[in-house]
Amino acid sequence: MSDYQEYLAEKEKIDTFVNLGYQLTSVTENLSGAFLEFELKNEMNESKWEQLHIKTADARKYFSTLLNMQKATK
């Protein structure tokens, strides 16, 4: 898979969580990429957590932009 195709796949996964209402709550970066934690709270204030492993530099830039936008709207 090309780097661009891998980026598109990672971007689509991130967008899916965001479109479902998940909030990006944590980012842990290391030499193998970034691990993103997403949280979705329901009406009863119960949380559901999901994690993604992001490897491409372009996807890391993309989620950084989303994180900044998320912080700006709070």
Folded structure, characterized:
The chain has about 70 residues and is α+β, with helices and mostly antiparallel strands. The protein has one domain (about 5-70): Nuclear Transport Factor 2, Chain: A (Roll), CATH 3.10.450. Helices cover about 45% and strands about 35% of the residues. It has two helices and three strands, in the order H-E-E-E-H. It has helices at about 5-20, 55-70, and strands spanning about 25-30, 35-40, 45-55. A three-stranded antiparallel β-sheet has the order 1-2-3. Helix 1 (about 5-20) packs parallel to helix 2. The radius of gyration is 13 Å and the shape is elongated.
Write a concise keyword list for the protein shown above.
3-stranded antiparallel sheet, 2 helices, 74 residues, single chain, Nuclear Transport Factor 2, Chain: A, 45% helix
Give a short summary of the structure.
Helices cover 45% and strands 34% of the residues. It has helices at 3-19, 57-72; strands at 23-30, 33-41, 47-54. It has a single domain (3-72), classed as Roll (Nuclear Transport Factor 2, Chain: A), CATH 3.10.450.
